[in-house]
Amino acid sequence: MPRVKEHPSDGGFGLVELIIAMFLLALITIALIPALYNGLIYSARQSTTATATRQLNTLVEQARQTHTCNAVMSAAATQSFTDGAKQAFTTSGTYSCTAGGIASLSLTAKDSGSRTLASVTALVYVP
User: Fold this and answer.
1) pLDDT by residue for the chain (127 residues), tens digit each?
2) Is the dihedral of CA 44, 46, 50, 52 positive or negative?
3) Residue ranges per domain, the chain?
4) Are 63 and 75 in contact (CB under 8 A)?
5) Backbone angles phi and psi of 125, in degrees to 5
6) Can you give the pTM of this predicted structure?
């Protein structure tokens, strides 16, 4: 059997093709970095918002379980909290309470830049 000679051009990718492929991958990576960064920032904000919402719901439930005007007043007092990402936020609120009726409680959670993260309005029965 005669032996077939291999040509140097049959050997796969050359250096130029490899450099072009690396350049294209670098361009795609650079284009995706801002989207990745914005996604991380959005995720951190949503985490803080979720934590603030849970905290407001906890304050309302504590006021409902105690059934006193003092508990409603305590829930409306300004309080500071920190979420898992070490982002601080404060809760504050307003209330109107009369014994033997229904108390109205409005709470708001704001971050350090005074951006409203969550708010809730609830009614609490006070015997």
Assistant:
1) 666 666 655 667 788 999 999 999 999 999 999 999 999 988 888 989 999 999 999 999 999 999 899 999 999 999 999 988 888 999 999 999 988 899 999 999 999 999 999 999 999 999 8
2) positive
3) 14-126
4) yes
5) -80, 125
6) 0.71
Q: Over the range 44-63, which residues count as b (16 or more CB within 10 Å of their CB) and which as e?
A: eeeebbebbeebbeebbeeb
Structure-token match 């005074």, residue found = 114
Q: How far is CA 1 from CA 4, 10, 62, 127, in A?
A: 9, 21, 91, 105
Structure tokens given for 33: 């970095």
- The region, left, alpha or beta by phi > 0 then psi within -120 to 50, assigned to residue 86 is left
